[in-house]
Design brief:
single chain; Rossmann fold; 7-stranded mixed sheet
């Protein structure tokens, strides 16, 4: 795919990463430079919030891919990563365990599970929330419920950035890995559903950009801010 020039602005590495041995197979690809372009597209969507001193909640963080990406580009930040603790496949527990092994020694990093104190502290503290393709695997009802829980961040002037798969093609991926739904698959969402959520929650939800993930699936990246 053709990479927008503005995404390149976030690709430059300035600092030594927290982990030199980090391995994470997941969204998009782990092959460079494509992996950096993927996360750069989300950093670009954060706009002015992407800066030294930012505080971000990575909701559904997996192995905390964003954490390592941030550590190579920012020096002063607070990162909160949470995963559900009720995964039938133990995906979430294993992911957080691995993330703690890689990043737990760094005082900027806070990792835990949804429903625990780390999530509460994050919602009360952060200025930015990222949901990297989480809503690709939730019903629209669950999507609205999660956004409503995160609204305090928006109400105090912060931003929520999330992506959703908008392709008409999808494949079931097997057992539930996120814990949000009874069945785990790729959900096709519609622009109308997003517009309806914006009206219900009385927020502004706008399309920021589109990242073409591995397999040529279009992930639409949205920003949620106060009206």
């Amino acid at each position: 795919m053709k990479i927008p020039q503005e995404w390149n602005d976030f690709k430059e590495e300035k600092y030594k990463p927290i982990s030199d041995n980090y391995i994470c197979v997941g969204f998009g690809t782990d092959k460079e430079p494509d992996s950096s372009y993927c996360l750069s597209s989300f950093a670009h969507a954060m706009k002015d919030n992407w800066k030294e001193g930012m505080k971000v909640l990575d909701y559904g963080c997996g192995k905390a891919r964003l954490c390592n990406f941030m550590s190579k580009r920012l020096k002063d930040f607070a990162y909160y990563g949470v995963e559900p603790s009720n995964s039938a496949t133990k995906h979430s527990e294993n992911a957080i365990e691995y993330a703690n092994e890689q990043f737990g020694m760094d005082k900027r990093i806070n990792l835990g599970f949804i429903g625990e104190e780390v999530e509460k502290e994050a919602i009360e503290t952060v200025d930015t929330v990222l949901l990297l393709s989480i809503f690709t695997h939730t019903s629209i009802e669950s999507t609205e419920k999660i956004l409503k829980k995160l609204l305090p961040v928006v109400e105090r002037g912060g931003v929520i950035v999330f992506s959703m798969l908008m392709s008409e093609e999808y494949n079931l991926l097997g057992p539930n890995a996120y814990g949000y739904e009874n069945s785990y698959g790729v959900v096709r969402n519609t622009e109308q559903q997003i517009e309806d959520i914006a009206k219900t929650l009385n927020v502004d939800i706008s399309l920021s950009n589109i990242f073409l993930a591995e397999g040529d699936f279009e992930h639409s990246i949205y920003r949620v801010v106060k009206k």
